[in-house]
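Example 9 (inverse folding). The structure is encoded as follows.
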């Protein structure tokens, strides 16, 4: 199947895709805030987590189903398949490495798929709250 957009049109469309402040991320942040779980956004941690609780050494990533290869929803694009296969392998390897680095430095890491937030927001917030309450041996 051939792409229906020209290269310049495709480039423009791709440039409009947000990397932060996505709808699922905003939904989760608002729900956490309403639950009284105050967080930080700006950070220089590996992988640049979407939400950070510095005092509890807890970081949260909101992963897009397409961009991070969700096992339930990811569909490989038909066009430029080799590029997308390589990109997905690199993304998954990078996510694993970021998790490893953060955990090695004493951080608790939570990752939510965008569909998890859309389907079960309260469950995601409950999970954050649960991990938030866990003692951190490095801090306590």
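The amino acid assigned to each position is listed next.
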């Amino acid at each position: 199947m051939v792409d229906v957009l020209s290269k310049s049109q495709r480039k423009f469309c791709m440039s409009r895709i947000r990397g932060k402040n996505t709808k699922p991320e905003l939904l989760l942040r608002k729900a956490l805030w309403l639950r009284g779980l105050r967080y930080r956004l700006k950070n220089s941690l590996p992988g640049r987590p979407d939400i950070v609780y510095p005092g509890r050494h807890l970081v949260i990533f909101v992963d897009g189903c397409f961009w991070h290869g969700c096992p339930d929803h990811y569909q490989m694009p038909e066009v430029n398949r080799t590029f997308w296969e390589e990109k997905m392998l690199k993304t998954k390897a990078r996510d694993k490495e970021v998790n490893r680095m953060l955990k090695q430095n004493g951080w608790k890491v939570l990752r939510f798929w965008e569909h998890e937030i859309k389907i079960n927001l309260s469950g995601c917030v409950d999970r954050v709250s649960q991990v938030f309450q866990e003692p951190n041996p490095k801090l306590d």
